[in-house]
Amino acid sequence: MHIFRVFSIAAGLVLLASCAGPAQTFTTAQKTKQVEKIRLACRHAWSGYKQYAWGYDALKPISKKGQNWYNVSFLMTPLDAFDTFILMDMKKEAKEAQELIRSKMNFDVDQEVQLFEINIRLMGGLLSTFELSGDKYFLDLAWDLGKRLLSAFNSPTGMPYRFVNLKTGKTRDNISNPAEIGTYLLEFGKLTQLTGDSTFYTVAKKAAFEVYRRRSDIDLVGTLIDVNTGEWKNTECQIGARIDSYFEYLFKAWLLFGDKECYQAWKTHNKAIKKYMLTRVPSGGYFTRVDMKSGKETHPYYGALDAFYAGILALSGDTITAHNIQRGNFYMWTRFNLEPEEFNFRNDSIIYPNYPLRPENLESCFYLYRQTHNKEFLYMGQRMIDDILDKCRTDAGYAEMKNVLTLEKEDAMESFFLAETLKYAYLLFAPESKLDLKKVVFTTEAHALRRTRDEGRGMKDEGRRTIDDFSEDKSRVSQLFFGTPVEILQ
Ligand code: DMJ
Hints:
Helix content is 50%, strand content 12%. The protein has helices at 3-19, 28-53, 76-87, 91-104, 115-133, 136-149, 178-182, 185-195, 199-212, 244-257, 260-277, 309-315, 319-336, 360-372, 376-391, 416-429, 467-471, 474-482; strands spanning 58-60, 65-67, 112-114, 163-165, 171-172, 175-176, 224-226, 232-234, 236-237, 278-281, 284-287, 289-291, 297-299, 301-303, 342-344, 350-352, 401-403, 408-409, 440-442, 448-450.
């Protein structure tokens, strides 16, 4: 065996042994310290945004400037961060974000946007903000946005185009992927529940199931598909980029709404994923990449995005497989001291060396800890968040890494750092009463949506509720989430 490989395996085993922590203890005081550290980090990132990027989509944490995705700002950072502030009891920051969104958000613009990103960041943010604050303004915004996005689904197959103009409804780009086609079930389903308009869940479900019915004979899907013809353009199956949240939403649509067809579809895929993609090597478990038709390995690559699936498995009750994958996830982190976007898990070579402050590894730690209460996951989470807060910090916020080996920084701070990374890290150490997972499902952007597991009945027109019915519910809505009403936003 190659000497480098022997060294990596040995290093991996040492790391795995050490991650369990001294005598498996993790005291309440240690948890409180972590919680406080993460809240301070959140405040630091928001202060930088406030000072240098107020009103923009995102902060550039090195040059200390604001940055927009398009010609106009859609306030990605404040909207993505709002429910994190609520969870962390950061009332002042929540109010600042809410007022900024209320005063500036406008979707009536002649602007082409990427459907997937707008849905997970903005639509998800608006819906959770509404459910948390009871402020009907946010539901009106979500409804307006939803109607503007609908024309994207007008393709011959019902699978959406990747881009849509918010004013004209003009669409573009028919070569899409399962994630950008199937990640609307939660947001559009919630919009249907809240508005009584079944169109939203109908188009979202049709889109996801148009991918599902094109699965291969061994129940896998590919990476690229033409939404005009339904023809696969790339038949490599992977758990991460371009497919990840398609699998996630089939499972979570069952959790959130009790949709049994979605659960059945997820179970079919999950069986195939475990049969053909789950790979065990000495450093842990990984999902390898395979051809969707033959199940044969194409590339032994794994990365930051792939790490989320351990969390889905944990939520589904398969904690043994999830634990094994989380060992791989943690190895990927400790081997490079911050995880790379992609690496070859058979020889430890890096494919893409960047780390854009992604949450998935911490997210899986959080779900695994909630399911097992094994303190190993607290130690893993502590190591990861401490590395991030230490290595990525700048005067104005936190910067992405261009290269995890050289620690060269990128002048960017994605809004999901506030929406997801800090949120999952915080929830890992915070008292469990902060968030009851029986009452809430997190979207792929970690926006908290109220769980109504009603065997799909909520998706039909009976029991239909208008916005006004719902807005009378204000304090009850908040109580359903966290036990106490959110008072700050009245
Ligand atoms: C987020 O925008 C979402 O979680 C998405 O599904 C993929 N991952 C990024 C963060 O890494």
